[in-house]
User: Which sequence fits this backbone?
């Protein structure tokens, strides 16, 4: 009897092993299966991510799965981009099933009761959260705690989940998080010629992971666009896009477009535009402003902006609509009639 039990104990793991191996093979097969996407003229990884994963900010994941693409800004028509099946499946979100609501008997209406005026209805945020985090501002370089210092492979461009070396001016701890900022173009006022600072572009978020061999090692948790050596680290804090009640204000304001933040290949709807008016001019998030281009001797309306964040002398706006001509630095601002 004892011998039978011993044999049984030894046989059970052997019987389970094929099922476990089959499960592992299925996972590996699923991970290795890919969908091939043929690049069309004008495509960017941003566009492909938006079409295939329904989220343009996931483009670094596609880039990471295509080591043959050395520069994410350089892809060509008829080039094949590989999108792993597991990545497509991860981006499918199930819609929550609403719970049944028990019906209540209507309460009797009293004749003396007076109808109350409806309270203002809060709308959804003015802009999607990732786009808001990536919107940035025009101004001087802010105080920063450290910089991106490199990668073990020698690469100079980084994205989601990359492990990078960082340098800090002071002490940091494992678990500390930082926004990654890129010092972009110098901004000169299109009319006065005065220097206004730089387009400060948030390009990602990282977290300090460990210290080894005298190096500080961090992981890029999220990238909004490509991250490079020398980008600045600013302590993390919660940022939420503004929620503004309707009707939106339409202030009587003049001024100029001074710079753009192109989150896509070409400036268009949902791109960021910076203007030379801000808090001191009475602007608030939610305000709507028209833009006008000068074509020869003629003034041509070419778009509409909505303020999403303000500083003392500047504001970041999102393009609500655009007409025949792109919104560019030098276009002037006017009231929405």
Assistant:
């Amino acid at each position: 009897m004892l011998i039978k039990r011993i044999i049984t104990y030894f046989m059970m793991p052997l019987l389970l092993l094929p099922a476990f191996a089959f499960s592992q093979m299925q996972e590996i097969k699923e991970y290795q299966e890919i969908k091939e996407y043929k690049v069309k003229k004008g495509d960017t990884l941003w566009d492909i991510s938006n079409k295939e994963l329904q989220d343009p900010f996931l483009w670094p994941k596609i880039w990471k799965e295509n080591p043959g693409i050395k520069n994410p800004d350089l892809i060509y028509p008829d080039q094949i981009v590989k999108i792993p099946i597991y990545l497509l499946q991860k981006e499918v979100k199930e819609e929550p099933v609403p719970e049944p609501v028990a019906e209540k008997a209507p309460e009797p209406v009293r004749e003396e009761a007076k109808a109350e005026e409806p309270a203002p209805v809060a709308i959804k945020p003015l802009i999607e959260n990732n786009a808001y985090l990536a919107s940035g501002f025009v101004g001087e370089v802010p105080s920063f705690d450290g910089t991106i210092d490199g990668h073990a492979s020698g690469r100079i461009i980084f994205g989601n989940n990359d492990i990078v070396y960082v340098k800090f001016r002071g002490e940091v701890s494992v678990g500390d998080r930082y926004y990654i900022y890129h010092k972009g173009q110098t901004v000169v006022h299109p009319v006065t010629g005065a220097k206004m600072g730089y387009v400060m572009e948030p390009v990602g978020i990282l977290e300090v992971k460990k210290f080894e061999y005298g190096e500080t090692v961090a992981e890029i948790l999220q990238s909004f666009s490509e991250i490079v050596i020398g980008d600045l680290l600013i302590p993390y804090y919660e940022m939420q896009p503004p929620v503004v009640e309707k009707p939106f204000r339409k202030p009587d304001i003049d001024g100029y477009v001074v710079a753009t933040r192109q989150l896509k290949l070409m400036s268009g709807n949902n791109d960021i535009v910076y203007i030379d008016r801000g808090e001191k001019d009475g602007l608030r998030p939610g305000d709507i402003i028209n833009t006008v281009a000068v074509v020869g001797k003629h003034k041509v309306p070419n778009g509409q902006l909505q303020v999403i964040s303000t500083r003392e002398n500047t504001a970041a706006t999102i393009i609500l609509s655009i007409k025949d001509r792109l919104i560019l630095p030098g276009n002037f601002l006017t009231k929405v009639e």
